[in-house]
Amino acid sequence: MAKKSIYLDNSATTRVADEVVEAMLPYFTEEYGNPSSLHEFGRNAKAAIDNARMTIADSISANPEEIFFTSGGTESDNIAVFGVAKAFGKGRIITTKIEHPAIKNTVKELENEGFDVVRLDVDKEGFINLEQLEKAITDNTILVSIIHANNEIGTIQDIDKIGHLVKSKNIDAYFHVDAVQSYTKIPIDVDAAKVDLLSVASHKIHGPKGVGALYVREGTRLSTLQLGGSQEKNRRAGTENVPGIVGFSKAVEINMADFYKHTEKMTQLRDKLITNIECKIPDVILNGPKRDKRNPNNVNFSFKYVEGESILLHLDLEGIAVSTGSACSSNSLKPSHVLEAIGLPIDVSHGSIRFTLSRYTAEEEIDKVIEILPGIIEKLRTLSPLTQKSDVI
Ligand SMILES: Cc1ncc(COP(=O)(O)O)c(C=O)c1O
Q: Of all protein residues, whose CA lies closest to atom 4 belonging to ligand 1?
């Protein structure tokens, strides 16, 4: 009999919610107009994206005119970073050592082009140091780009404090937040946190793939990267992905409707998994912080003396899907830059596994992992050339 799979890779992507699929369907076959067309089909499609804009704006306390639809988190990050850089032409960009490649690689490209880039250190739990940030903000700083909840280790940066600090040191420096992993899991208020730009993606929150949004505070200087039609007020040319945008908005609606209930449930299950792994398996290291400073859906452990890939494959054989790092880096043998930044030795970082929950994760699923994992680790450790004994040879 086929085993029922347990999906614990929700930071890579999520299952599309049934209500989301249902909301999208008419926009493929009935309301398929182009939002730029003037006839009824076009007007209905435009009304649908305008409604979606309102829903997304409400969820972060923004105005609908400040929401721009994109193809996902990567594009939102690219428009934010390259758009500001192109508008200014030169200056300092401050970021962290634990960004997702969508920011890490865009900033690297700008550094190659001559921008002055500062990458903030993080402590062993993944937090930036506010004093280091304060010292780094100069008069020529054009952008501070910080990941809200880290995609690998779940560390939540205090964007309220960061935003106030940025503006108190240089009112003209823009503050961009990559909120792809925190969106609808941690409350976000762009005004309270003095955020100028914020990236989100639909497929991380039970919406469809290929759609995201960028919040851009009114008045922000941002150059256009993609040239073409005048869609999205010239900020992002190209016919809008109407079914995707409708699905994204439905996913936001579902998540925001019972925000505290579902984040509390995820937090409880997350902590149950953390506590049990720590109790039942020796020689483990929890990467990232505990309790309320950790994204509600994230658990990341290093299991000493074993390879993460072996653990992943053994769990996969049991029908449990996890990740060895972030989805984008899990095909590479290079140690994760995030684990390196928190000071984890390379050999230990190779034994790291990320479990990411969703609002649909059931307690029995977590119990099953708790039941199976200790045996897998024990077996791998007996077979491993990396066991404790090899340390003393
Ligand atoms: C923090 C963060 N930023 C950006 C992205 C890129 O988002 P997308 O996959 O929608 O392009 C991801 C995806 O994992 C992410 O975790």
A: 73
Q: Within the chain, how many helices (H) and strands (E) appear?
A: 14, 12
User: Does residue 146's CB lie within 6 angstroms of at least one atom of ligand 1?
Assistant: no
Give CA 48 to chain center in angstroms.
26
| CA 8/CA 298 separation, integer angstroms | 10
178 lines ligand 1 (CB under 6 A): yes
Query: Where is 230: in which H helix or E strand?
Result: none
CA distance 391 to 393: 6
Q: Is-above-0.85 flag for pTM?
A: yes
In angstroms, the CA 340 to CA 343 distance is 5
C-alpha closest to that of 360 among 94, 6, 52: 6
Nearest protein Cα to ligand 1, atom 5: 73
- Residues with catalytic roles: 328
Q: Which residues contact 157 (CB under 8 A, 6 or more apart)?
A: 96, 127, 128, 146, 147, 148, 149
Distance 154 CA to ligand 1 centre (A): 13
Ligand 1 in reach of 151 Cβ (< 6 A): yes
What domains lie within the chain, and their CATH numbers?
6-14+258-392 (3.90.1150.10), 18-257 (3.40.640.10)
pLDDT, tens digit, for every residue of 322-371?
A: 999 644 455 556 789 999 999 999 999 999 999 999 999 999 999 999 99
Helix extents (H) in the chain: 18-24, 26-29, 40-59, 73-88, 101-112, 130-136, 159-169, 242-257, 259-280, 308-317, 337-341, 346-349, 363-383, 388-392
Mutation choice for ligand 1 from 14, 75, 204, CB with most ligand atoms inside 8 A: 204
pLDDT tens string 297-312 = 999 999 999 999 999 9
Pairing of strands 197-201, 212-216: antiparallel
Identify the pLDDT of residue 388.
57
Probe ligand 1: pick from 10, 151, 203, max atoms within 8 Å of CB? Answer: 151
